[in-house]
Amino acid sequence: MTLKANALSFALAASLLALAPHAWSQDVAGAKQGHVYTSDLITRWGKAVTPDNAWRSYPRPQMQRAQWQNLNGQWDYAIRPKTQGQPDSMDGKILVPFAAESRLSGVARAVTPNDRLWYRRTFTIPAEWAGQRVLLNFGAVDYEAHVLVNGGVVGSHRGGSDTFFFDITDYLKSGENEVVVQVTDPTSDGPQPRGKQQLNPRSIWYTPVSGIWQTVWLEPVPKLHIENVNVTPDIDAGMLDVEVALNRSADDDDAVRITARAGGKVVSTKLIRANRRTRLPVPDARLWTPDNPFLYDLDVELVKVAKPFDQANASQHRPNGERDDSLITEIEAQTYAKAQVQGKPVDTVRSYFAMRKSSLGKGRIPGQPVLLLNNQPVFQNGTLDQGWWPDGLLTPPSEEAMAFEIDFLKKSGFNMLRKHIKVEPAQYYHLADKMGIMIWQDMPSGEEDNSLDQFVRMKSNDEVLFPTRVSDEFEYELLRMISDLRNHPSIVTWVVNNEGWGQYASTRLAKAVKELDPSRTVNKVSGWLDTGDAGSDMFDIHTYEDVPHVPTRQTHRAIVMGEFGGIGLPVEGHLWFPANRNWGYQTAKDKDDYLARYQRKYTEVIRQAREVGLSAAVYTQTTDVEGEINGLLTYDREVSKIPAAAFYKVHAPLFDHGEKADAKKRGK
Length: 668
What we know:
By secondary structure, the chain is α/β, with parallel strands linked by helices.
């Protein structure tokens, strides 16, 4: 959701802000120095959070190992000027994985660009992990982290939304070990990708999130182990492309056994040399859809085999001898397929996949391409999903809370959501995969607050210019986001830029994304400055008018409403700023007025789907967020503005008009 639409929207926003100063400044002025406004809102799941139950589920559903240790819970913390060294004493306890500014962290303190946030805790390595390497994993830390174990620096990381890990084996000692994490975060003082966070939150900009905000955990691995598993379904060929990369080069007796199962029964299995790619047959594949989100199980094992090659004619200048002639050839693949496995697996990870295709193709309107799911036109009816919570901010209070929200959307007649300039914990995408909802995944935007140089406006005719260090950082994080999430079948589209917020080189970036992941559609620019067909599968408009505008007809791209709607309805007792006027593109008088406005908007969406070939519409938004009151649900997820069944009834014609039209053509 964004400040755009039309002159009326801007005038309304200005008048609301003029009538009532933002509650942030009012409350902070009267609060304890350095503390953050949190309101009185808390979700039902937030009320149940304790240090013993905070985010206990396995944090990497796409690549599970049997042994691991969760480090979520109470850590020591301190906030000091960033120019100072490690403090001798800490300020108190913080509940990881909730950000320092959040209510659930137990801290709710501001971390400014001039501060350094310190974390400290101890841990003990289980005796049964002896002889293995130990990895320290972070789901996400915003923004720049430096990690020490027992006083030694094990590594550093920049980026607020991606996973990272360090091998800490060499820094460990027997008994109790200490980990220290130090974090700096410029938030809106810098151009790094951060989404909606703002040092001075107002209207559509939200409370900052600093430090650890996803799960921290340990896992033991053998010296040579599986590091990456990438899967790409090919439903047209009935195959699954699989890439398995180890943490380093392997020997000839290192092989990987890949096994696909459906309902516990083996569908396909292959044995390949380690650090190779292969194609796994999936006969009579059951396709993934929101109505039938079927998932296959996938086991990947690193095994030892009797050496299938000797090194005949080896020499000083050719140490592998004739073996070099068969490297990465069909001869090698056939030889390993027949190799004899010896002993137990060295390393095992459990994963899953779905047979699903997201593409562009012909629709019912001649000459207007549409979005396809599994080669069939499926209208994608979604919400703009910010993923913010009143108690956890960027961190949902629990998996149950996330599941509730997805279930609500499905019951309301949505089959898609646009995850808006935020990356969720991996468990969220696992739920979407299992429960069946399509996702447009945004890349978090980055730009300095109120910059005259780093925002593209609606009337701009060119994109912005960044120094290389800034664009390099954005592209690194874009690459990392796709690498982290590419195996999730629920994600059907990558959205590279939103509305000109730091928009640069959109065509080059979109082409790079398509090259990296050709299995999904790409939306290079959602709203505002369109940069043409190249690299993009969609022409995307944002239209917050009472009756949505019609996207311009396209011959090479699907036409979509990347954002529309925005009907505000404040619900007393469920407001972030109860004393203030709140933000909405339009404000309904009551529930009846809300429903009438909602029906008017969707009547036009349905007409466009039938008559002009509209492929998708994204309604703003799933929930209220801080000062925004245009959600289907209140910010605490306690009240639906109208019943889910009423939303479903409004949306129903989107999913039956094609069937009825085809039946009419057949004379039925």
